[in-house]
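Try this one yourself first.
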């Protein structure tokens, strides 16, 4: 099974962490993988090696403020986040890549394809979130609640957050994958 390698590229807010798996010599089809918020590239851990076994150079990127990437001093816009794509491609010596984004990542992948065509030549959007201004405001309120949880010595804040996040998951969710994403989500913005 191909080995997952880790690396960093320099970006606007410091280091951008990525994991890659697949051909090292420029062979294979590069595929960028951009995660949803509030998790990181761990979301793609189970698919990178199977993709690599099929000749795909899988590159999972931690968005700034998530996983091993440095945290921006102010919240970036989607257009700002898109700049991680050429930074990582340049670091790896890749001219053109396809990109897959999940939820938040889908929005960023779309923006990267618009800003940096033809470097992003194909996109796969998994669960994009087209929303009206009203829906966007409602989600901002909902997500602000998640960010505002207060630490409690009895750990009940963790149970609350678990129930809040897991309640949105379908019954078929893999518990181990959900747990890993939950833990990494707790660290979002704390790196």
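Now uncover the answer:
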């Amino acid at each position: 099974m191909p080995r997952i390698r880790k690396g960093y590229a320099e970006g606007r807010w410091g280091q951008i962490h990525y994991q890659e798996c697949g051909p090292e010599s420029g062979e294979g089809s590069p595929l960028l993988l951009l995660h949803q918020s509030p998790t990181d590239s761990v979301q793609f851990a189970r698919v990178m090696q199977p993709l690599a076994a099929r000749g795909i150079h899988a590159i999972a990127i931690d968005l700034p403020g998530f996983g091993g990437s440095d945290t921006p001093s102010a919240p970036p816009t989607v257009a700002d986040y898109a700049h991680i794509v050429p930074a990582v491609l340049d670091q790896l010596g890749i001219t053109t890549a396809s990109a897959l984004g999940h939820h938040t990542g889908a929005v960023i992948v779309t923006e990267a394809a618009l800003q940096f065509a033809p470097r992003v030549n194909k996109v796969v959007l998994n669960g994009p979130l087209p929303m009206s201004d009203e829906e966007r405001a409602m989600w901002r309120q909902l997500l602000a609640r998640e960010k505002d949880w207060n630490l409690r010595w009895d750990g009940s804040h963790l149970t609350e957050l678990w129930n809040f996040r897991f309640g949105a998951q379908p019954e078929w969710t893999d518990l181990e994958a959900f747990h890993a994403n939950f833990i990494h989500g707790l660290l979002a913005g704390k790196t």
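Discussion: The radius of gyration is 17 Å. The domain at 5-186 is CATH 3.40.50.1820 (Rossmann fold).
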